[in-house]
TrEMBL record:
Keyword tags: ATP-binding, Nucleotide-binding, Transport
The protein's name: Branched-chain amino acid transport system ATP-binding protein
PANTHER family: AMINO ACID ABC TRANSPORTER ATP-BINDING PROTEIN, CONSERVED COMPONENT OF ABC TRANSPORTER FOR NATURAL AMINO ACIDS-RELATED
Gene Ontology MF terms: ATP binding; ATP hydrolysis activity; L-isoleucine transmembrane transporter activity; L-phenylalanine transmembrane transporter activity; L-valine transmembrane transporter activity
Species in which this protein is naturally found: Anaerobium acetethylicum
Any Pfam family matching the protein: BCA_ABC_TP_C
């Protein structure tokens, strides 16, 4: 059974069919790319998968579970984590606390225990600190754990956002343009990090990306969206040499 199975998904905004008859099947452990020209519907597809938008039609199953009618928090708990095109960190909080926010639902401790500072509260905090530091170390951010998130350089903020999404322990991680605004060195490093987290956490990754070098370099399969609908799907080689895809990108 595929980890993610999306059938005939669609949404309209007024007269605009932003996503139409979108189908995708992602196997466990796969690194999958979603590409397409500007305005093709990629972020809208992510918003449908994460419950931000309710689809007009179609179905989404994660690991066999139907996500229909679930809100973003429930979908996150079922197993989809995401990052955003524009970084959305808690900028005034520390790097460590940003990751701990992602861990909270796994280390539950009652409000009373927190207010009364009971031993169970300190135990949960300690476990969260340890787990958050482990995650930060994977991204080479452990030395900056005490920094305010907004003081990190841009490339590291992007990594921190991925670390926070991973902290929610997702089965499927959605990355929306993870390399946006990065220089070539940062992008190359990010590619290594994405491969590493897929292997280390045995996670499945779907990413939107305009950087074709990154997409072709790390994705095993790609779907191309154009005007909200699938234009092509296949291996990077098949897709990037497909005349329909080349035409869509060149706008001929
Ligand atoms: N909430 C909304 N209300 C109305 N139109 C929307 C809404 N969200 C997205 N759209 C429209 O849907 C279409 C698809 O947008 P979307 O952001 O999904 O594209 P994209 O492929 O992610 O583009 P980009 O690569 O530029 O980020 C666009 O025409 C956009 O203007």
């Amino acid at each position: 059974m595929a980890l993610l199975e999306v059938k005939n998904l669609g949404i309209s905004f007024g007269g605009l069919r932003a996503v139409d008859n979108f189908n995708i099947k992602i196997e466990k452990g796969q690194l999958y790319g979603l590409i397409g020209p500007n305005g093709a519907g990629k972020t809208t597809a992510f918003n449908l998968l994460t419950g931000v938008y309710k689809p007009t039609n179609g179905s989404i199953h994660l690991d066999g579970e139907n996500l229909a009618g679930k809100n973003p928090a429930q979908i996150n708990q079922i197993g989809i984590g995401r990052t955003f095109q524009n970084i959305r960190l808690f900028k005034n909080m520390s790097v460590l606390d940003n990751v701990k926010v992602g861990l909270h639902h796994q280390f539950k401790c009652s409000a009373i225990a927190g207010i009364l500072r009971l031993p169970s509260y300190f135990k949960a905090e300690k476990l969260m600190d340890e787990k958050a530091m482990e995650l930060l170390a994977v991204f080479g951010l452990d030395k900056e754990a005490g920094f305010q998130a907004s003081n990190l350089p841009y490339g590291k903020q992007r990594k921190l956002e991925i670390a926070r999404a991973l902290a929610t322990n997702p089965k499927l991680l959605l990355l929306d343009e993870p390399a946006a605004g990065m220089n070539p060195n940062e992008t190359a490093e990010l590619m290594d990090t994405i491969r590493l987290i897929r292997d280390k956490f045995e996670i499945t990754i779907l990413l939107i990306e305009h950087d074709m070098k990154l997409v072709a370099g790390i994705c095993e399969k790609i779907t191309v969206l154009n005007f909200g609908t699938e234009l092509a799907s296949g291996t990077p080689e098949e897709v990037l040499n497909d005349p329909k895809v080349i035409t869509a990108y060149l706008g001929e």
